[in-house]
Write a structure and sequence with these properties.
The complex is a heterodimer of chains A (about 250) and B (about 240). Chain A contains ten helices and two strands; from the N terminus they run αααββααααααα. With about 250 residues, chain A is mainly alpha-helical. In chain A, strands 1-2 form a two-stranded antiparallel ribbon. In chain A, strand 1 and strand 2 form a beta hairpin. In chain A, helix 5 packs antiparallel against helix 10, helix 6 runs antiparallel to helix 7 and helix 7 runs antiparallel to helix 8. In chain B, a hairpin with a 2-residue loop joins strand 7 and strand 8. In chain B, about 30% of the residues lie in helices and about 30% in strands. Chain B is elongated and about 60 Å long. Chain B contains five helices and twelve strands. The mean pLDDT of chain B is about 95. The chains are: A mainly alpha (about 250), B alpha+beta (about 240). At the A-B interface, helix 5 and helix 10 of A face helix 5 of B.
């Protein structure tokens, strides 16, 4: 019965004036950058959004114009029209910090559980459904992180590999789930706040997964994916714990 | 940084746990004075008594912001209609403190069959203070929680349990600052060896304590009947 708000309060460097079009654009941008609104998702209609933020529809339209100018959303006409998220910006450190403050360790563990379930199913289907050409494509994408120059590019290259596995698996539903999970997890993983990122480790993991798919080795592929996601989620949990209290902090308060 | 010993963490956790159960017992005593039972041990609560119980539970929730919800859960036998009966109030973000309704008809599709759940059976059958979870309260409040319960007796008849829910996310905020005082990692572990809350990736909520990997020690926690332990890594 308790529903998560779609636009939780996210910290930004800039002071927020409630109700102004730029302020609302900031909040929606943060939600998109942290995957709370995934690429491909449709925003609620103008009336609903205006009501959610307690502003006039005219103000909300200005907000959408700002987001369109930034290339984050696109408005399409017609029966299946609406405003859609088309690109996720890389989150500001403050937004990542707020994400960790708002999510418990247990929730991060659960994110890992879902990610493991979806990705294991995908890699097993990828083993069964891949062929020489699709394996080449997976192999090619496995090391793309090496070409990336910024954290944002690395996050995007990392996601792209995992999304390709879903493409090879040929399940549109699983692809949608993977897209949603990637848009939440990947920016966090490559954020400076989480740190300790070794592109080489990620590339080695990706190449090993790709090799297992090439051999149609279901069991090995499953094990590798599970391990890869576990390591990643553990890094996020460690980051959350370290961003919160340092060991010993808060002890004297109780 | 002050060095904190496992014994100090144990003491803090016990103080916290005991105070949780104390306030639950307080609510139980208050409720026991409102609930009437007939000679056969059947519960009789009219509208006025229900209103009074709701008031008492509401006051309890006002004092316990950490609690997701609290209330009384009657045994179907004592209640006598064949349906379940709960008086459960929750902190609702929109409505404030409000009554939460469950499906109590055993023939209904989404029947909340609480008499089979650990927090009820242990507190009611064994009559002990119980902490159940972490678990997803499917068909109940549908949150990832722990539930603390204790039995309620009226004129010698055990008729219900009193309980309070704490969301795992909130429990984490409350207990991590204690567990984090042991830098190698520590956890609150339940009677089934499940991690309730832990301070490292080695101890994640819901996971079973790995019996193969040694390297940790444990200390039982009061109230002992709950079976809770403090588990901590030793290098």
């Amino acid at each position: 019965m308790t529903q998560q708000p779609i636009f939780p309060q996210v910290l930004t460097d800039r002071p927020i004036t409630y109700g102004s079009a730029p302020a609302i654009a900031e909040r929606i941008t943060s939600s998109i950058s942290l995957g709370m609104l995934a690429v491909g998702e449709r925003l609620p209609n103008e009336q609903e959004l205006a009501a959610q933020f307690g502003v006039a529809v005219a103000t909300l339209r200005k907000t959408l114009a700002i987001l369109r100018d930034r290339g984050l959303v696109e408005t399409r006409r017609g029966r299946s029209g609406g405003t859609f998220v088309v690109r996720a910006p890389f989150p500001e450190p403050a937004a990542v910090e707020a994400y960790f403050a708002e999510h418990s360790v247990a929730e991060l563990r659960d994110l890992g559980d879902e990610h493991t379930a979806v990705s294991v199913a995908i890699v097993k289907l990828a083993c069964k459904r891949s062929h020489a050409v699709s394996v080449d494509r997976v192999m090619d994408l496995a090391s793309r992180i090496g070409d990336a120059e910024t954290p944002a590019e690395r996050a995007s290259a990392d996601s792209r590999f995992h999304i390709e596995l879903a493409v090879v698996a040929q399940s549109p539903r699983l692809l949608r789930s993977e897209l949603r999970l990637q848009s939440e997890v990947s920016p966090l993983l490559w954020s400076e706040l989480v740190g300790d990122v070794q592109p080489e480790t990620a590339i080695a993991d990706h190449l090993a997964i790709a090799a297992a798919i090439a051999k149609d080795d279901l069991n090995q592929a499953e094990e590798l994916v599970e391990d890869h996601i576990r390591q990643n989620i553990y890094r996020l949990i460690d980051a959350k714990l370290n961003l919160g209290t340092k060991p010993g902090d808060g002890w004297d308060r109780s | 940084m002050t060095t904190v010993s496992p014994d100090q963490v144990k003491t803090r956790l016990e103080t916290w746990l005991v105070s949780q159960f104390d306030s639950l017992s307080e609510l139980a005593v208050q409720a026991e004075s409102v609930i009437e039972v007939d000679a056969a041990g059947k519960v009789d609560i009219d509208q006025q008594a229900t209103a009074r119980l709701e008031e008492l539970i509401g006051e309890h929730l006002v004092r316990h912001r950490l609690s997701d919800g609290a209330g009384l859960i009657f045994s179907t036998e004592a209640f006598g209609t064949g349906d379940g009966h709960l008086i459960w109030l929750v902190h609702d973000p929109e409505e404030g403190i409000s009554r939460y309704n469950f499906e109590v008809n055993p023939r209904a599709d989404r029947y909340y069959d609480y008499e089979r759940l650990e927090w009820f059976t242990k507190a009611f059958t064994a009559g002990t203070k119980t902490i159940a979870g972490p678990y997803i309260d499917y068909l109940g409040v549908e949150e990832y929680i722990v539930t603390l319960t204790a039995p309620i007796h009226v004129r010698g008849h055990r008729v219900a349990v009193v309980g309070t829910d704490i969301r795992i996310a909130d429990l984490e905020l409350e207990l991590l600052r204690l567990l984090r005082a042991l830098p190698a990692g520590a956890a609150l572990v339940n009677v089934h060896d499940s991690i309730v809350v832990g301070s490292s990736t080695r101890f994640l909520s819901g996971d079973q304590l790995d019996p193969i990997s040694a390297g940790y020690a444990s200390l039982p926690l009061q109230p002992y009947e709950t079976g809770l332990r403090l588990v901590y890594a030793v290098d």
